[in-house]
C-alpha cells in the first residue's frame, strides 16, 4: 500500500539549515506532484513547496529564496532543503502527494499524507 514517511525534523538554530525527506512506498504507477505543507500552532496549514512531475517547483512567498524542494525519482523520495531558518519556520511539516497506484488489476489515484515531522527553530 502507498505510504508517505517524513524524516529529518530536529531542533535548529536561527540561520541554520535542515533537510527533510519524504519517502513514498508502495506499488506506484505515477506521482503527479509532491507538496510540503506545514502547520504551526495557532495558524492555518500552509503550502510550503510543490514539485510537479516535470520538476517545476513553486514556493510560498515566506520561504522563497530559502527553501528548495527536490526529488530523486528512482527512489521515490522528495526532499525539502531549508536554509536561513527563522523562528517563524517552526511547525509540523507534512509531506503530501497525489499518487496513482496499482490496486489489484486497477489503477487508483489518491491524495496521500504523511504523519508529519516537527521542526523547531530557536532564536
Q: Can you give keywords for this protein?
A:
single chain, 123 residues, mainly beta, four-stranded antiparallel beta sheet, 11 strands, elongated
Structure description:
By secondary structure, this protein is mostly beta strands. It is built from no helices and eleven strands. Strands 2, 4, 5, 6, 9, 10 and 11 form a seven-stranded mixed sheet that branches. The protein has a four-stranded antiparallel sheet with strand order 1-3-8-7, with no helix packed on it. A hairpin with a 6-residue loop joins strand 4 and strand 5 (about 45-50). About 25% of the residues are buried. The model has no long low-confidence stretch (mean pLDDT about 95).
Summary?
This protein has strands at residues 3-7, 11-13, 18-25, 28-39, 46-52, 57-59, 67-72, 77-82, 91-103, 106-113, 117-122. The chain is mostly beta strands and 123 residues long. It is elongated, with a radius of gyration of 15 Å.
SSE topology:
Layout: E1 3-7, E2 11-13, E3 18-25, E4 28-39, E5 46-52, E6 57-59, E7 67-72, E8 77-82, E9 91-103, E10 106-113, E11 117-122
Parallel strand pairs: 2-11
Antiparallel strand pairs: 1-3, 3-8, 4-5, 4-9, 5-6, 7-8, 9-10, 9-11
Bulk shape? elongated
How many helical stretches?
Answer: 0
In N-to-C order, the SSE pattern is: EEEEEEEEEEE
Query: What average pLDDT do the residues reach?
Result: 94
**Largest sheet features:** 7 strands, mixed
Ends distance: 41 Å
Helix content: under 10%
Q: Which structural category fits the helices and strands?
A: mainly beta
> Compute the gyration radius: what is it?
15 Å
The percentage of residues in β strands lies in over 45%
Uncertain runs: none
Count of individual beta strands: 11
